């Protein structure tokens, strides 16, 4: 009944020139970076504005009333403020827990894939064209720190330890690091055992343990020393992982991906346990899971395709599933002070009950 | 009268009246031939006739028609499950039967037909294996509860909710693109033109009636241009009844007016001959009768009657001086042929100005009406007096005419005060106030269609109810503006092209009045996401050409065969003129900013593109047409009266009528569109008749040395009754239309009734007041 049309196997991938991309990245960019060290870093840092200039003026994202109801991919807290990023260079911020949104001034119209804040002022966003943007005013205005169009591939997630040190991951095994707040970026992808250049989909800090990266084809990597050295983790699943979330207890890792697969480790990835996910009728969840968050009330929320919302109040040992009636795919989640979920994805941002269901209409 | 009798007989008069039998025989022969032709006239219309073919949008659309996968002409059949939803074995079976039945109706573009039962309607899903997909209704479908459950899943995954399947799952659509002409099934080398009436009837009989009877749980809703036109043509048949009603009323009025059965019948028959000739000529010249030119036979009838009445009036008066009907007819001919000719020529000139408008149906209306008027010259100015010369006129009518001529008429006496120095300034003041009021209110007049759905039909017509059903239950509106994106061959899949298209789509989606926008970019974004395991983080264009090429592989129909043209479909909330103007302006701006070597954004196709073009043409022609029609009738008046003042006396009341007519349209919520634009020209063209008849009489009395008021009294006494009768006649010819099943005919009828009556009032009330200020009787006397 089903007929696979475009198999994403290794042999198939070669045809789509992904392989070519990956190897090119390794040979030219990565090679150059690792060999020439700081010199090339300066070069790269300088190349970003140069590229924008070559394009004529900087093309800012268009201010649109529809930005909040258009594709948004990630949402996070910046102090009390909530910031979301997504399609066409849209970055939105809300100071009233998601009820009303303002659009930030962003110097790109590319799809932004992830966003991370270390405090109420300093944040970074990454996206296609290997863009890195940063803000120092809580997300109201943004500047391009890094861009590399020739890569023809996106960065997919970003994590910052403090105002200086951060790491971004991306397609075809991209892993870049900064130690100067994003002024210059160093390619560190060869620190990972990922020769085939599989996508790295997400990076997060696991409470009390270290960094954890998940990716395509069951890829899992961890670093106990904030990214200096990396180790491949024995993966419980060979399909793709799209996201990874830390529990609030040390060493708790929740990783999830294709077709409703979700795994929990209490020991920073040494051992895994598959968590069964099903709706009230006992039907197993089959939609892909895209992203999750450790909420401020200590619960863990994971969202995905087809409007799937999972919440756990026992550190990920079990999840409750809500399939949202509109079935639109979700790709990011945070919560307000009441515990209500603020979801982003297709159709933009919406506020849901703590379980992910639609809120009862306000009286 | 005596003056006219002294005029020598013209060559034409001698030619006609010395060969009366020849005239009658000739007319009978022509009638026989044209009656045969007229009998074959069929209601017909075509899509292309209703659109301005010369407009750049339309030209671009036609230029790329083959690349556009029939965006213009589609019928959508929505099959509703009355109880429950579409997930029942019976519903799906009925849907399949309807799909198959429609497939075999001639004129359907079978390869592009789409419904849940089409193999081209597919679902897709991402698995560990990659991108999976299949037909929404798989080969294994057997109607069992399990396969219906699968069907529901497949539909959810197919992205067809709101498009082929209603948002509430209670109905689904069969999308039926049409071919304007299709190969003859018996002889493939021959092309048959799509017969909209037949097609529409086939939809009714083979689909709606048949399947609603077969499965009482389904209701069929059909929308689309072809169905609309089919309904319009059906409405025309109803209009034929109005024609009979108009003949009946006219007969009674004529009898009352002439007091003579013989001449009443003579006028009716010669006028019907005129209508027959006009229809026959139309068919001989290869035209059919479309919903818009349906008006013409009514006009020809009304104009014919009014001229016939003038003739009978003249003959009756002339009979006062002579016993011989031939002499009476000759005298009336001599006296009325020239003013009749002038009036009819003015009509024709008014109609001909409609040719300036680059829309097929309006041009056909112009040709049809001009032909009709030309025919009236032959039938009512020549054949009628000849016929009367044989039949004679009843003694009662002659006696009445004599009495009328001699006795005093308090009514006309009272009306003659319009020419008095006291009343005239008041009249002028009222007219100026009315003019200002009309101008002020007329500002609300809009171009184009103002209502949702099909404004040609009544809001509660079945078509509009069906249309409303589809709008309520589906997300894609029926109003689509298409921007064509042109590149070099193989250029449509380049990143720069797609990125620019994406920008255009976003700009359009942010334009007020736009519901959504779709193009190959939408497919490419979904495709790239699909290639990347369905991750939303990839739902954007890739700079990698291989990835882009792969991603558009599924966008069949969204770009042409050599990848040099791709449409961007912009779905609009409605087709109101402001919406169209607004959206088109936004698209134009974008095109101007972004057109460059190798990448061009071309407007426009889609029904909204066509309507935008039509609106632009109408807005541009409205002024041109008004100037042309007024210029034409002014020149006719100048030639006839050789006096600027006289021309002003005749024209100014018409101007007032035109302006009040605009205000009335604004008040009734009718926009200036294909159906209503001709009304103004028709109104002016015919309205000038009254002025010409009245002024020519008035002038002749002034030349005899009468004062203005006395001359006007004499004018009213001799032709006032005929003029009022003419106005009423014309109004009756069209007022029955108000009851038409077709809304635009009702609007036309209302407008024309107003124009005809008010032009008459203007001629009788305002013309003498203007003459009081503009005409110097002394000068005329000197000339005489």
Automatic annotation (TrEMBL), chain B:
GO cellular component: plasma membrane
Transmembrane feature ranges: 21-39, 235-257, 264-285, 291-309, 336-357, 369-393, 423-442, 623-641, 648-668, 674-696, 722-742, 754-775
Main localization (coarse): membrane
Topological category with respect to the lipid bilayer: Multi-pass membrane protein
The organism of origin for this protein: Pseudomonas songnenensis
UniProt domain SSD: residue ranges: 265-390
SUPFAM superfamilies: Multidrug efflux transporter AcrB transmembrane domain (SSF82866)
PANTHER family with a match to the protein in the record: MEMBRANE PROTEIN MJ1562-RELATED, SSD DOMAIN-CONTAINING PROTEIN
Superkingdom, taxonomy of origin: Bacteria
Listed name of the protein: RND family transporter
Keywords: Cell membrane, Membrane, Transmembrane, Transmembrane helix
UniProt subcellular location: Cell membrane
């Amino acid at each position: 009944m089903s007929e696979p049309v475009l198999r994403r196997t290794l042999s198939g991938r070669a045809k789509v020139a992904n392989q070519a991309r990956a190897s090119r990245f390794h040979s030219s960019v990565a090679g150059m970076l690792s060999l020439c060290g700081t010199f090339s870093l300066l070069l790269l840092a300088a190349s970003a504005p140069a590229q924008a200039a070559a394009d004529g003026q900087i093309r800012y994202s268009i201010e649109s009333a529809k930005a909040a109801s258009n594709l948004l991919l990630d949402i996070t807290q910046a102090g009390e403020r909530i910031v979301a990023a997504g399609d066409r260079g849209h970055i939105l911020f809300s100071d009233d827990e998601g009820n009303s949104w303002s659009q930030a001034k962003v110097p790109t119209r590319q799809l932004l894939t992830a966003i991370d804040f270390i405090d109420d002022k300093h944040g970074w966003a990454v996206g296609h064209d290997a863009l890195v943007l940063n803000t120092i005013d809580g997300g109201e205005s943004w500047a391009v720190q890094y861009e590399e169009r020739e890569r023809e591939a996106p960065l997919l997630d970003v994590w910052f330890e403090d105002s200086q040190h951060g790491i971004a991951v991306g397609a075809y095994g991209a892993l870049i690091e900064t130690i100067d707040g994003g002024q210059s970026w160093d390619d560190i992808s060869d620190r990972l055992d990922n020769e085939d250049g599989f996508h790295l989909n997400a990076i997060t800090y696991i409470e009390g343990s270290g960094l954890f990266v998940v990716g395509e084809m069951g890829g899992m990597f961890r670093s106990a020393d904030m990214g200096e050295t990396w180790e491949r983790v024995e993966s419980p699943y060979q399909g793709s992982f799209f996201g990874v979330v830390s529990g609030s207890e040390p060493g708790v890792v929740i990783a999830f991906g294709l077709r409703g697969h979700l795994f929990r480790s209490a020991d920073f990835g040494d051992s895994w346990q598959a968590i069964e996910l099903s709706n009230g009728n006992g039907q197993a969840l089959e939609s892909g899971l895209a992203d999750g968050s450790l909420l401020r009330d200590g619960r863990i929320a994971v969202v995905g395709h087809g409007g799937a919302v999972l919440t756990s109040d026992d550190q990920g040992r079990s999840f409750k599933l809500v399939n949202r009636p509109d079935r639109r795919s979700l790709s990011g989640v945070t919560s307000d002070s009441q515990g209500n979920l603020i979801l982003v994805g297709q159709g933009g941002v919406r506020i849901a009950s703590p379980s992910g269901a639609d809120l009862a209409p306000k009286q | 009268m005596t003056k006219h009798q002294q005029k020598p007989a013209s060559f034409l008069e001698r030619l006609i009246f010395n060969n009366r039998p020849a005239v009658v025989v000739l007319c009978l022969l022509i009638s026989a031939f044209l009656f045969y032709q007229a009998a074959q006239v069929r209601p017909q219309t075509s899509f292309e006739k209703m659109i301005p073919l010369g407009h750049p949008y339309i030209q671009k659309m036609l230029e790329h028609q083959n690349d556009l996968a029939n965006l213009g002409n589609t019928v959508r059949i929505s099959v509703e499950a009355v109880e429950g939803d579409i997930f029942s074995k019976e519903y799906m079976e009925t849907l399949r039967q309807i799909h198959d039945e429609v497939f075999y109706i001639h004129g359907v573009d079978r390869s592009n037909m789409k419904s849940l039962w089409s193999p081209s309607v597919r679902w897709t899903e991402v698995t560990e294996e990659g991108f999976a997909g299949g037909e929404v209704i798989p080969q294994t479908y057997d109607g069992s509860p399990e396969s219906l459950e699968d069907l529901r899943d497949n539909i959810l995954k197919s992205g067809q909710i709101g498009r082929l399947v209603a948002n509430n799952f209670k109905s689904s659509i069969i999308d039926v693109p049409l071919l304007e002409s299709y190969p003859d099934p018996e002889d493939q080398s021959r092309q048959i033109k799509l017969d909209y009436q037949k097609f529409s009837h086939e939809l009714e009989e083979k689909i709606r009636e048949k399947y609603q009877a077969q499965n009482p749980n389904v209701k069929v809703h059909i929308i689309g241009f072809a169905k609309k036109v089919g309904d319009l043509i059906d409405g025309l048949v109803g209009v034929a009844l109005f024609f009979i009603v108009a003949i009946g009323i006219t007969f009674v009025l004529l009898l009352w007016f002439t007091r003579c059965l013989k001449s009443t019948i003579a006028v009716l028959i010669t006028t019907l001959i005129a209508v027959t000739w006009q229809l026959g000529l139309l068919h001989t010249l290869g035209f059919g009768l479309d919903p818009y030119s349906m008006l013409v036979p009514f006009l020809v009838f009304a104009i014919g009657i009014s001229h016939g009445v003038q003739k009978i009036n003249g003959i009756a008066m002339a009979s006062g001086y002579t016993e011989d009907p031939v002499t009476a007819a000759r005298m009336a001919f001599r006296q009325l042929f020239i003013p009749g000719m002038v009036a009819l020529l003015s009509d024709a000139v008014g109609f001909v100005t409609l040719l300036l408008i680059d829309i097929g149906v309006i041009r056909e209306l112009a040709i049809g009406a001009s032909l009709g008027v030309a025919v009236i010259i032959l039938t009512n100015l020549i054949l009628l007096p000849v016929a009367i010369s044989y039949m004679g006129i009843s003694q009662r009518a002659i006696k009445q005419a004599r009495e009328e001529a001699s006795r005093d008429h308090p009514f006309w006496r009272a009306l003659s005060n319009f020419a008095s120095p006291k009343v005239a300034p008041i009249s002028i003041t009222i007219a100026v106030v009315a003019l200002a009021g009309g101008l002020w209110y007329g500002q609300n007049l809009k171009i184009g269609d103002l209502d949702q759905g099909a404004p040609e039909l009544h809001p509660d017509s079945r078509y509009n109810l069906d249309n409303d059903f589809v709008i309520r239950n589906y997300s894609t509106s029926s109003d689509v503006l298409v921007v064509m994106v042109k590149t070099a061959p193989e250029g449509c899949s380049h990143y720069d092209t797609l990125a620019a298209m994406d920008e255009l789509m976003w700009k359009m989606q942010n334009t007020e009045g736009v519901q959504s926008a779709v193009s190959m970019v939408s497919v490419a974004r979904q495709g790239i996401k699909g290639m990347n395991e369905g991750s939303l983080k990839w739902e954007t264009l890739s700079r990698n050409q291989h990835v882009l090429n792969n991603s558009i592989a599924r966008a069949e129909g969204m770009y042409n065969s050599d990848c040099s043209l791709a449409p961007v479909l912009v779905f609009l909330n409605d087709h109101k003129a402001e919406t169209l103007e607004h959206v088109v302006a936004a698209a134009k701006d974008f095109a101007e900013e972004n057109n460059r070597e190798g990448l061009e954004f071309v407007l426009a196709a889609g029904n909204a593109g066509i309507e935008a073009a039509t609106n632009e043409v109408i807005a541009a022609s409205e002024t041109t047409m008004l100037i042309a029609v007024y210029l034409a009738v002014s020149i006719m008046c100048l030639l006839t009266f050789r006096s600027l003042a006289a021309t002003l006396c005749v024209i100014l009341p018409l101007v007032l009528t035109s302006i009040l007519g605009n205000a009335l349209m604004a008040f009734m919520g009718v926009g200036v569109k294909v159906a209503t634009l001709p009304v103004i020209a028709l109104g002016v063209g015919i309205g000038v008749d009254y002025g010409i008849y009245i002024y020519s009489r008035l002038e002749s009395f002034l030349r005899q040395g009468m004062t203005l008021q006395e001359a006007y009294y004499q004018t009213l006494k001799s032709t006032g009754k005929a003029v009022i009768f003419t106005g009423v006649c014309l109004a009756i010819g069209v007022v029955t239309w108000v009851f038409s099943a077709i809304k635009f005919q009702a609007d036309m009828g209302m407008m024309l009734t107003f124009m005809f009556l008010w032009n008459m009032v203007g001629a009788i009330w305002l013309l003498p007041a203007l003459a009081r200020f503009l005409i110097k009787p002394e000068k005329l006397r000197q000339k005489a």
